[in-house]
Amino acid sequence: MANPSVLDQPVYEPGKPIEDVARELGLDPKSIIKLASNENPFGPSPKAVQAAMQALLHGELYPDGGCFVLRNKLATKLAFKPDEIIIGNGSNEILELLGHAFLKKGDEVVMGSPAFVVYKLVTRLFGAHAVEVPLKNYTHDLTAMALAVTAKTKMVFVASPNNPTGTVNTEAELLAFIRSLPEHVIVVFDEAYVEYQLKAPDLSVLIREGRKLICLRTFSKIYGLASLRIGYGYAAAECIALLNRCRQPFNVNAIGQSAATAALDDEVFTQQCIKDNTLGLKQLEEGFKQLGLDYVPSVANFILVKVGKGAVIFTALQKRGLIVRPMASYQLPEWIRVSVGTREQNEKLITVLKEELILLS
Fold first, then answer.
1. Local structure of 87: helix, strand or coil
2. Spans of all domains in the chain
3. What is the dihedral of CA 65, 70, 72, 75, to 10 degrees?
4. Level-2 CATH architecture, domain 46-263
5. CA-based Rg of the chain, rounded to a whole angstrom?
6. Rounded to whole angstroms, how far apart are CA atoms 180 and 202?
7. Is the pLDDT of residue 108 over 80?
8. What is the pLDDT of residue 3?
């Protein structure tokens, strides 16, 4: 009785939770370090925590279904209008809403490979065909992606920085690429890690030009609110109105709305996270160099490193209380992805990785 697209749909496998690893391996949860899901190792914004606790006191009430306060605050921050912004249950929900609004069987969707796997999952869920274009030097090959666009192409996904590689194209390259696409193509520009960049590409001018572009962001990374599932998108009001027709009422809970609104004001916290993340990336890069390992220079809060037998190293690290992300499902079996942790966490990762590589040699 199920739709064929559901029967063929792969199941997304997230980074393993600390509790699961502790239970399976008999470890103390407090001793486990999770560097698998690109979470903020410094926790949530303190201002967000305070606002969330206040919102919980009124848990008996339905949330504001239109996210009025948060949308208006984001509108001011982004220099957009409130009706040009949509709030989602994580930016992942907005990816699904795009499928509901625009994709049908027979459509083609162009994306990089490897890239965030949810792009492909959403594409397949709605019966469309994923056209995967290999990366060039671990970065989106925009020339090849433009050549992959056909009359059947409905959507193009570009992530900046890209997950799992942490790389970006220049603003000039992105502007030229999107301007070169035909009118029937919608571009989804995923900026989940945008805050970690010292100077991120700004494509808002394309929306002002009337291009079919939607940009997605999240509160899960720099703001440390992954557990509350809250993200947003900004685009032309016409596009946002179509997505609002597809979303569920009260899709974003009141606690998440309050926390996200407060987090936008917590500049001290976010600036410290950016600074510490930059130092953490440098620490990991230096550690990998000392171990003689190849890695992909990253501008996000994670880094891709080539360890040889990725699955073996992943298992060995996990047994010692370090959860990283194996990359075989991204066609990178020799690599693991490591989220940037605190200085102490990064130091332990390098030390244990060195020991396990020696045992493997």
1. strand
2. 4-43+267-360, 46-263
3. -120
4. 3-Layer(aba) Sandwich (3.40)
5. 20
6. 17
7. yes
8. 84
Q: Which amino acid is at 298?
A: S
Residue with tokens 């925009």: 142
Q: How confident is the model at residue 24 (pLDDT cuts 50, 70, 90)?
A: very high
Report which residue type is found at 361: S
For residue 214, the 8-state DSSP code is E
How many beta carbons lie within 10 A of that of residue 321, not counting itself? 20
Question: What is the DSSP annotation of 168-212?
Answer: ---HHHHHHHHHHS-TT-EEEEE-TTGGGSSS----HHHHHTT--
* Planar angle of CA 32, 45, 297, nearest 5 degrees: 65
- The residue type found at 96 is E
243-250: long-range pairs with CB below 8 Å, 24+: 243/86, 243/94, 243/97, 243/98, 243/101, 244/86, 245/101, 246/97, 246/100, 246/101, 247/86, 247/88, 247/93, 247/97, 249/65, 250/62, 250/63, 250/65
The superfamily CATH assigns to domain 4-43+267-360 is Aspartate Aminotransferase, domain 1 (3.90.1150.10)
Do residues 163 and 116 lie in contact, with contact meaning Cβ atoms separated by under 8 Å?
A: yes
pLDDT tops 90 at residue 13: no
Phi, psi at 130, each rounded to 5°: -80, 120
In the chain, the percentage of residues whose pLDDT exceeds 90 is: 94
Say which DSSP state 140 is in: -
- Are residues 155 and 107 in contact, defined by beta-carbon separation less than 8 angstroms? yes
Q: How many CB atoms lie within 10 A of CB 50?
A: 14
